[in-house]
From TrEMBL:
GO terms for biological process: lipid metabolic process. Residues 49-141, 143-252 form the Fatty acid desaturase domain. InterPro entries: FA_desaturase_dom. The chain crosses the membrane at residues 16-40, 47-66, 86-104, 146-164, 170-189. This is Beta-carotene ketolase (CrtW type). Pfam families: FA_desaturase. Keywords: Membrane, Transmembrane, Transmembrane helix.
Length: 260
């Protein structure tokens, strides 16, 4: 029997953790989505709970996109391209009826031409928050997405009897909030010019926030964005360890130089 190589064990572990975390995010998102849209009863007492649910659902919606993003890089389930695509397609559809096939080539263009002509995520000449977001929205908006969202909403209201207000509160609002999180912490802050120059041709900064805040804002794609561009195959949950390993490696080299 052939021995299992360490690299194979590492990829198997990455797949197991990635798929498990993706399943947890999807199940949690679906729970709030279904309960909120179809079973929620409004009263003064449920309003505070609804606010918490919206905030959590916004974060989970961001997580759906990040899982799909890992799928695009093959980082969710290495060596299983069909599984990567299936999970990524599902997550984007749940989040906002987005097309995985349409987003995949655009995101790889972002990595090939980061911060330059040809980068679909770049501001296109207006680096202000509003101007950049407008360009970002125009790039990723599609009439097809709106049609798909409308059809789902019609099925929910006309066939399944869901109140339209609940659809807005528990699906639309979290989706819009997630767009804000993804743009501000995953695009604008990491890729904007600032006093500190970019470290390399990746033209990406890592926001100086702690790991907990990094997780809460954008599943580590703010606090560890430069690490992501250095290693696109590292999943979101592995980015902090990636930085630690890099820091330890640099420190080890410095110590070796000091001893010589």
């Amino acid at each position: 029997m052939a021995a299992v190589r360490p690299a194979d064990r590492t990829l198997a572990r990455q797949t197991a953790i990635g798929v498990s975390l993706a399943a947890a995010i999807v199940v949690a998102w679906l729970t709030i989505h279904i309960v909120g849209i179809f079973f929620w009863h409004w009263s003064l007492g449920t309003v505070p709970v609804a606010i918490v649910a919206i905030l959590v659902q916004t974060w989970l919606s961001t997580g759906l996109f990040i899982v799909a993003h890992d799928s695009m890089h093959g980082a969710l389930a290495p060596r299983y391209p069909r599984l990567n695509r299936a999970i990524g397609t599902t997550c984007l559809a749940l989040y906002a009826c987005l097309s995985y096939a349409a987003l995949l080539p655009r995101h790889h263009l972002h990595h090939e031409s980061t911060g330059r002509a040809g980068d679909p995520d770049f501001h296109g000449g207006d680096p202000s928050l509003v101007g950049w977001f407008t360009q970002f929205f125009r790039t990723y908006y599609s009439h097809g997405q709106i049609v798909r969202i409308t059809l789902v909403a019609l099925v929910y209201t006309l066939l399944l009897g869901a109140p339209l207000g609940n659809i807005v509160v528990f699906w639309a609002l979290p989706a819009v909030g997630a767009v804000a999180q993804l743009f501000v912490f995953g695009t604008w802050l990491p890729h904007r010019d600032r006093a500190e120059p970019f470290a390399d041709s990746h033209r990406a900064h890592s926001i100086k926030i702690g790991p907990t805040l990094s997780l809460l804002t954008c599943f580590h794609f703010g606090g560890y964005h430069h690490e992501h561009h250095l290693s696109p195959g590292t999943p979101w949950w592995g980015l902090p360890a990636r930085r630690r390993a890099t820091v330890e490696k640099v420190a080890g080299r410095q110590l070796a130089r000091d001893r010589t």
